[in-house]
Amino acid sequence: MHTLLLALALALGSTSAGGPKVEPAQMVEQQEFVPGMVIVQFKDASRAQETIRILEQYEEITFDRMLFDDDALRIGLFTVPQGQEQAYVEKIGQMDNVDIAELNGIGSFN
Predict the structure, then answer these.
(1) Range(s) for CATH 3.30.70.80 in the chain?
(2) What pTM value is reported for the model?
């Protein structure tokens, strides 16, 4: 997507004889995740509540809600200190019953 936007900006920046010059658009870095939020997928769905209790023993980690919850798959949303999300992803991801820990990404559909 960025490549397409950059190509379009460069094309608009060129001019035909006598036409107005359009300056290329500047890329603006956007935050690509929700600050203070981490998503966790549990390896063993039956042990998800146990893992949540362990995580909540840390004062700075708060269980927000289950994003997906059934017998085979449980994915939870957690609040962590803003600015330290990646560090918490790494710490939480090392837990025995955590399959995946990741930033709560912001996506768009085109």
Answers:
(1) 33-105
(2) 0.67
